[in-house]
Structures are given as C-alpha cells and as structure tokens.
Amino acid sequence: MKTKVLISVMGLIAMLGWGVQPSLADPEHGSAHVYSSEQGCGHEMRKHNAYPAEHLRHLLQHQKDIGLTEEQVKKLKAIELDFDRAWIKSEAEIHIAERELLALVENEKTDLSTIEAKVKQSGILEVGLRMVAFKARHDALAVLTPEQREKGKAAHEKRTGEMMSGRHGGAASGGH
Length: 176
What we know:
Elements: H1 2-19, E1 34-35, E2 48-49, H2 51-61, H3 63-66, H4 70-106, H5 112-143, H6 146-167
Antiparallel strand pairs: 1-2
Helix pairs in contact: 1-5, 2-4, 2-5, 4-5
C-alpha cells in the first residue's frame, strides 16, 4: 500500500514539477528560449522558458535599429534588472520547495496532506514565476511606441528565421 502511494505521489511530483514547462509571456515562442541555472547541490535547476529576458536583451541589443531613446533604454534596463532579480529569487524558491518535497516523500512517516500542501506550494511558486515573466514583457512593451514594437517584432522574426534556417540546414521547405 505504501509503495502505491509513494509511486502515485512521485508521479504527481513529476507531472507538476518537471513535466509542466511554463510557456511564459509569449505562447507563440513558448519553447524557443530556455533559462537554466547550474547552482545549488550540483544539480541543475528546472529549465524555465525565459523569453521575456531574451526579448529585453534583443530590444537593448537593437536599440538603434528600433529607434529607442536614452530614456527608453534606461527604463528597459531597469525592467531587465527587476526581472532578473525576481526570476532568480523565484527559481531559488521553487528549487528549495522541490527539495523539501523530496525530503517529505522520502520520509515514510509523512502524511499525504503534508505532501499535498508542499506540492501546492510548489505550484503556486511556478505560477508566480510565470507572472514575473508576463509582467516583464508587459512592462517592456509599454515603454515602446507602436512603431518600435513593429520594428522589434520584425527584427525578432528575421533573427528567428535565420536561426531556423541555420539549425535546419536551410531545409525549411521540405523538412519537419
């Protein structure tokens, strides 16, 4: 009986903790960019999509092409820094919650309600991480004019097209 419960809980952990990858602020590009940190206990933290961070870096790298003012660059850099701080903090909190959860699961005396509470806590932290990303992207887009958004989007699509053709050896028409 305990084995069945343990297997069920581990399946739930796997599904919630590792199987669900948040597609952060841009569903169209949900799996295009991945953030990972190799800190803590020699294990790699779960990989989360960091499209907003890539989007901010892209805007800042192409600030002249997009026509950003000095004031807009300052604002975008501040958004990027706030995003990085919140992202790192959230990743660490999730990592800690997952380690605590594993410790609870390994202890045969832990009741299921305690495990369930920890799984829920981890899920709430995941939601918070996604919201950090949505907020960063929302705040960055609010800094731009409609024309700058279009220029940024065009530059991103061009870069994505170049990456895809390079990654697939130019077989865009007959490949996967």
